[in-house]
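This is your field. Pick holes in the following sequence-structure pair:
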Amino acid sequence: MTTLTTKIANEVINTANEAIRFLNHRSTMNFACYCEDTFTNLLRITKVLAEQEGDGLGAVLHDAIQSRLDDLLAGKSLTLIEVDEI
């Protein structure tokens, strides 16, 4: 990844983890909606990253965000996105 895409990917991870922390700290419907909106917006960014990067790291990040969104919609508990996962 280039420096710019690395910075964007790190910001996506930080934003997603912040939303997960909010939801895990206070499991309310408002925070669930906030998480869903945040993940949906981040999916657009990660889709562009996946298209720009040929090494697949953007696609892995996209899949990680998508799996968190799927878990949220299924009512499962969410775990933070670790850099090792990407």
User: Anything to note?
Assistant: The chain has three helices and no strands. The mean pLDDT is 88. The radius of gyration is 13 Å.
